[in-house]
Amino acid sequence: MRIPLSWLAEYVDLEPGTTPEQVHAALVKVGFEEEDLHDFALSGPIVVGEVLSFEEEPQSNGKTIRWCQVRVAADGQKAADGGDPVHGIVCGAGNFFVGDKVVVTLPGSVLPGPFPIAARKTYGHVSDGMMASAKELGLGEGHDGIVRLAEMGVDPEVGTDALELLGLNDAAVEINVTPDRGYAFSVRGVAREYAHSTGAAFRDPALYLPATGAAPVATSFGTEFPVTIADDAPIRGRAGASAFVTRVVRGVDATKPTPPWMVARLRLVGVRSISLIVDITNYVMFELGQPLHGYDLDTLSGGIVVRRATEGEKITTLDNQVRSLSVEDLLITDNSGPIGLAGIMGGATTEITDATHNVLIEAANFDPVTIARSARRHKLPSEASRRFERGVDPEVAVVAVGRVAQLLVDLAGGTIDDAGSNLNASVAASAIELPTGFVSGLIGYEYTADQVSSSLSEIGATLTSSPTGLSVTPPSWRPDLTDKWTLAEEVARIVGYDLIPAVLPVAPPGRGYTVAQQVRRRVSETLAATGHTEILSYPFLDETTNNLFGDAVAASIPQVTLVNPLDSEQGNMRTSLLPGLLATAARNRSRGLTSVSLFETGLVFLPAAGVTYGHGLLAGAVRPTSEQEAALHAAIPPQPRFVSGVLIGDALERQPGQKPVAFDWQDALASIQQIALASGVKLAVRQGAHRAFHPGRTAEIVIASSANNVSNNGSNNGSDEVVGFAGELVPSVTEEFHLPRVVAAFEINLDVIIAHAGVPHRAHDIQTMPAATQDLSLVVVSTVPARDVLAAVIEGAGDLLEDAQLVDVYEGPGVTDGSRSLTFALRFRAKDRTLTAAEATVSKDAGVALAHSRFGATLRE
Q1: Residue 490 is assigned to a ligand binding site
Q2: Is 15 marked as binding a ligand?
Q3: 767-861 belongs to which homologous superfamily?
Q4: Residue 362 assigned to a binding site
Q5: How does the average pLDDT of the chain come out, rounded?
Q6: Per-residue pLDDT tens for 104-147?
Q7: The Cα angle at residue 396 between residues 305 and 256, in degrees rounded to 5
Q8: At what angle do helices 449-458 and 484-495 cross, to 10 degrees?
């Protein structure tokens, strides 16, 4: 919400010289977040001038300019820039005449841009200033020639300060209005809050309106204009309209100009001037917070009926769009059909035009939920809908209609008719019991009884004594005050947040991060410390990409599909983190970062086949039962946390004496080892396959089903738990992301790692006996996984084998074609004695025997 300072000053006392920054600071004290400052960015001598004469001079470029003599000061006086009272000015516009009064920017002034004005030679003349257009002054959008003040309805003296005359010396503060404080979407509401903050006197415009005449605020009329609220099928038990006020003004001149001060204020609040009647309704909406609408009375057919639309019913709105309606939409209709989408936009058939002479003014109070849903359904947010969504004061509608009627009299020459209507079925706010001491106990500051009562009175609440404390009836403009807790917050806000003591809670001893939090942090910190960069990507993907990355084998997998996606081409929740990482890597590569190593931890969405999710949603503000809570949890698809990474480009950059070394599958496996070390969980690798990974360069990451003394290069074969994959991606996949052919990647289910990390580890005894080491080279068929051979050696060697690692793989001379030599480093140890070499050899031979029986392994000669 933007609030011009001059407008604010009409309803609250501002100290002379108050700056926008000071107003912002005062509003921050009462809980409003500052957004921005707005002004017309004009300065310097900008005055009213009178065109004395001009000569048209065609130019070689086909343009005709006017060499003008313009009076900018009275005879015998200096101009505001210190020059002569008559200035010569070159102007390219042709919409003015001799005798017209215009806005002249003299040398030394500055226009938005910034665009400084100075005397300069152009088209063979020295132009001593510039005659300004509405766009150049910030009053309009198009460039329709220079401003002729007569067209704005003013006739000032030559030399008058144009900034003050047109309201261009004003400024506006912009604040963020939270959804629960809709009353602050008005000058009335913000002025009240400024008064709360500073103690300045506040004048409620609902009680006092600075108009030139005395427009009666009518609550009954000589002739009742027929209005019917026919919401026979309220949605969710809520009637669409609770109040509807109308009034007739006849004989208006719709062609009259909007006064400059109103145009300037509307521009500052972010609304362009359209026409006098429309500008007046917009002006009063920003002033009082009550949306209004004007109908051309002569185009109405019969009375007004407020009703729900029928499914598929059509309406042409003011933007000339034909809109298909839903049964939830609320309509304003007459005998001809729909004439307005209630609370959002009027219809084209009753639009105010220059030919309008008789106006029906409407101010209503509509259901916030109905308006919010319709605005979103039709993608048609408006200033009116923003206010109705947050709640509008039901008592201000009558005042707003009277205010518009008076302005139509003052500015458009109309006459107020005795016809109108005033339907008001709004329910008065209920009293809230506020026990003595409750506010102090909740906030943590000892408030006096006077501070509590005066704060609540100040916001407009009505207070009476009750046996337990106070009975508080909130004002009509505060629908957000619903219980004693919201009242306590108001007391804290009005008295001052700065008085609330800051006390840091003491953490109970023995508590800290959970195991899951510790593991997640260690994994992320380890990856970051070893050269990876953490990113955060969006969780939205298309179905094809999800199928490719989401499962190792299946061509199609269950997915979570969004009902209303932000992007229709990415309407599914991700089943893998890798696509987001690849897209980020491609974006960085396109900007010159050819070598990157990225990782991400985040949730993926893995629904079970045949299960429907998202059902069982409950109404708010009601605590669910345990059964309902269980149903809600069941309605959410499994969302495990993954950790994934991609590596592209060079692991080792080129340098003197060193060629670049590119990332490959070994670097992806190294990242897996880092995760294993960080989590304290032993991970093993074995040959695997995945649709997105390169055949033959894909490792399956597993956790052994039983603990043993095997290093990360082997484990028991059998019921191992697969937790992820690592290796190189298929080149066809990387090319789709505009990446090099070789991209290393890994993906691990971090939740499974955390589950194993949470299992208590039993410490091993410290061994005091010396170890015996031997190497073992076995020749096997190349298709036999080295991991399986190692597992057989370990199983056969028995308890004396303490550690075994694969240290070399050889294929070449000395080894039969189609076979390879696997060399293992073995370490033997006994708990109670020093092993002899013979004992170690017997244990090793037992392992060789089992490997031979299973895989035909033979000792390499």
Answers
A1: yes
A2: no
A3: Ferrodoxin-fold anticodon-binding domain (3.30.70.380)
A4: no
A5: 89
A6: 999 999 998 889 999 999 999 999 999 999 988 988 776 678 99
A7: 80
A8: 100
